């Protein structure tokens, strides 16, 4: 578990101010938002990008690098979908490198737009080239479970990120939110609990163990109301 005395209570408005402080006009900054399944990192990231607006920020989720279901079936990994080794980690590293270089002048990179993939929960599949990242956008927010993982090659992705925030709600709140999310996308109550306390929990323990490598660990005090 994350030590309670390392967690800073905050609000979406305060995080917005922190995100604005990272922005340098004419330069590229990458902000990472991570946490265990059900922590609410996607909600936080989406709210921040929405508040900053498209001229300042764009959201690039790590989940776009899920292996396709056909690949998972071929690897006999369908039941562990969501584990760190069911993602194209090298693809994510390559994208972050392109995005990082895109915003730097004089680096020989001439990509006005880089297209990132997204993950569609209604399809349970990644969709390629779905998110345009423009050179003129100063802040890229990337969110996902494994931004702080030490297993190769995940640290190479971390090297491209200027700052990582770890979102750490109470375990009760996180699990409640996770079960509700599984049910929202078609699982029965029993299936949702089994998944949340099974493979999701094993992933969560690995992710929580990486929290001390974040620049900040936050509990977002107004997140429950905004997620409802």
A few lines on this structure:
With 228 residues, this protein is α/β, with parallel strands linked by helices.
What does this structure look like?
Keywords: Kinase, Transferase. It holds the Pfam family PRK. GO terms for molecular function: kinase activity. The chain is of the alpha/beta class and 228 residues long. It has one domain (4-227): Rossmann fold. The protein is built from 9 helices and 8 strands. The chain has helices spanning 12-22, 41-52, 69-74, 89-102, 154-158, 171-184, 189-197, 199-208, 223-227, and strands at 8-10, 29-34, 57-59, 113-120, 125-134, 139-143, 163-167, 216-220. The strands form 2 sheets. It has a 6-stranded parallel β-sheet, with helices on one face. Strands 4-5 form a two-stranded antiparallel ribbon. Strand 4 (113-120) and strand 5 (125-134) form a beta hairpin. Helix 1 crosses helix 2 (41-52). The longest helix has 14 residues, at 89-102. The chain is globular. The model has no long low-confidence stretch (mean pLDDT 90).
């Amino acid at each position: 578990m994350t030590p309670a005395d390392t967690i800073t209570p905050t609000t979406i408005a305060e995080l917005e101010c922190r995100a604005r402080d990272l922005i340098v006009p004419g330069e590229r900054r990458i902000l990472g938002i991570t946490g265990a399944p059900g922590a609410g990192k996607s909600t936080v990231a989406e709210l921040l990008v929405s508040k900053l607006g498209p001229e300042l920020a764009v959201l690039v989720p790590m989940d776009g690098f899920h292996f396709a279901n056909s690949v998972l079936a071929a690897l006999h990994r369908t039941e562990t979908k969501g584990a760190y080794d069911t993602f194209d980690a090298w693809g994510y590293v390559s994208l972050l490198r392109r995005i990082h270089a895109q915003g730097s002048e004089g680096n020989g990179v001439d990509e006005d737009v880089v297209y990132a993939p997204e993950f569609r929960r209604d399809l349970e599949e990644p969709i390629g080239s779905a998110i345009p990242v423009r050179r003129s956008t100063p802040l890229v927010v990337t969110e996902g479970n494994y931004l702080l993982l030490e297993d190769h090659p995940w640290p190479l992705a971390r090297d491209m990120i200027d700052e990582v925030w770890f979102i750490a709600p109470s375990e009760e709140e996180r699990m409640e939110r996770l079960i509700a999310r599984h049910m929202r996308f078609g699982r029965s109550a029993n299936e949702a609990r089994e998944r949340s306390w099974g493979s999701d929990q094993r992933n969560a323990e690995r992710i929580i163990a990486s929290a001390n490598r974040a620049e900040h660990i936050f509990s977002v005090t107004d997140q429950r109301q905004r997620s409802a």
